[in-house]
Design brief:
Radius of gyration: 23 Å
CATH class of the largest domain: Mainly Beta
Strand content: over 45%
Distance between the termini: 42 Å
CATH superfamily of the largest domain: TolB, C-terminal domain
Number of domains: 2
Number of helices: 0
CATH architecture of the largest domain: 6 Propeller
Shape: elongated
Structural class: mainly beta
Length: 371
């Protein structure tokens, strides 16, 4: 074994990889060193650790490689003679591929859809232009649909966002100032928040069956139990941290924090869901322009995916896309092209592949992008 006194660095190529792309770790062998003196392991999102083996490639160099499966932050640790190399560990951000896999137009056709969620082996889609919620198979073929719930018949049913947890399904009804709770057989059980909501948009259910509802007009998040009791209000109108301006979609991460698309503040805010205090917020800026944050979800590794639109009235400068960030607000990558009025987004694993289902309201379809 060689003496570990020599300073040894390692290099990674490419420095900004995408998923499914081979990443190569290279080191130059010090004098009297051999490939057996080196070891490495990768800590992937989700804290999975994988050991790597180096192979000599000539010219006193050796390589090890791996193929990242998930979007997010990786830690690369390389040891020389059982001691860390000078630049070890090194953080590597892996971006989504963002390739269009398939476009779902529905059967019958979608009309101004707003949100999509898994429902067993099917999907639920708020088909807002037709004032209905539809259930489709994975290809978009209609299985069932629901128009005005029998709970009331005031204004047109304006289904906006969906949340599903176990046997509980809730849909925000924008114009009727309420959230509808259904059972798994799609029987409407009750109205939630009628006295406290003005324009409910995003909705999510946490592990304690509390229902969080973003209110676009009141610029806050209302929290209810399943018996329609208002538990608390998070945020208020404003531009300071912890304040909101026209919130859209919301999500709960693995730390049980509330993640909010703070649309007209052009940022994402993360709240302690218990205390209501802001934990972190970050501006969303792409190619030098503020981005209005619309749809939002988090994956199983707490990567944030948002649908965003450039805050500009100049058509040639307008960008509509999906952006990925860490919970700390570090930009990972952009995916999705040719989107128009992107709204809800849902991330899931299907056939060992991570996919993003993006609601493209302007094109009346769901675009499925690879992660």
């Amino acid at each position: 074994m060689a003496s570990p006194s020599a300073k040894v660095d390692f290099q990674i190529s490419p420095t900004l990889p995408k998923t499914k792309q081979e990443v190569v770790i290279s080191v130059s062998l010090p004098l009297n060193a051999s490939v057996e003196d080196f070891s490495a392991h990768i800590q992937s999102p989700g804290n999975t650790v994988k050991d790597l083996k180096f192979e000599e490639i000539g010219d006193k160099k050796c390589n090890a490689s791996f193929v990242p499966e998930f979007v997010g932050q990786y830690e690369v640790i390389v040891n020389y003679c059982n001691k860390p190399c000078a630049n070890s560990p090194k953080t590597l951000l892996v971006a989504p591929r963002g390739e269009l896999k398939v476009t779902i137009t529905g059967g019958p056709k979608l009309n101004n859809p707003h949100d999509i969620a898994e429902f067993g082996t099917d999907f639920i889609i708020t088909n807002k232009g037709n004032h209905e919620v539809i259930v489709t198979d994975r290809s978009g073929l209609l299985r069932n649909k629901f128009v005005m719930p029998t709970l009331s018949s005031s204004q047109n049913f304006e289904p906006y966002a969906i949340a599903v947890r176990n046997d509980v399904i809730v849909v925000s009804d924008l114009e009727n100032q309420r959230v509808i709770q259904y059972n798994k057989d799609w029987v409407p059980l009750k109205q939630i928040g009628v006295e406290f909501l003005k324009r409910p948009t995003g909705v999510v259910i946490d592990s304690d069956d509390k229902i969080y509802v973003a209110d676009h007009e009141l610029c806050c998040i209302r929290v209810f139990d399943l018996n329609d009791h208002l538990i608390k209000t998070i945020g208020r109108e404003g531009t300071k941290p912890g304040e909101l301006m026209k919130p859209w979609f919301i999500a709960i991460n693995s730390r049980r924090q509330l993640v909010v698309a703070d649309c007209q503040n052009f940022r994402v805010q993360i709240f302690n869901s218990i205390t209501g205090e802001v934990v972190h917020c970050f501006k969303v800026i792409f190619e030098g322009s503020d981005m209005a944050v619309r749809g939002l979800t988090v994956d199983k590794h707490d990567i944030i995916y948002i649908t965003a639109v450039t805050n500009t009235l100049r058509p040639r400068k307008k960008v509509e896309c999906v952006l990925a960030y860490t919970m700390d607000g570090e930009f990972i990558g952009r995916l999705g092209g040719n989107l128009s009025l992107p709204r809800g987004i849902h991330v899931m694993e299907e056939n060992y592949e991570m996919l993003a289902y993006v609601v493209d309201g302007g094109h009346h379809c769901i675009k499925v992008l690879t992660l």
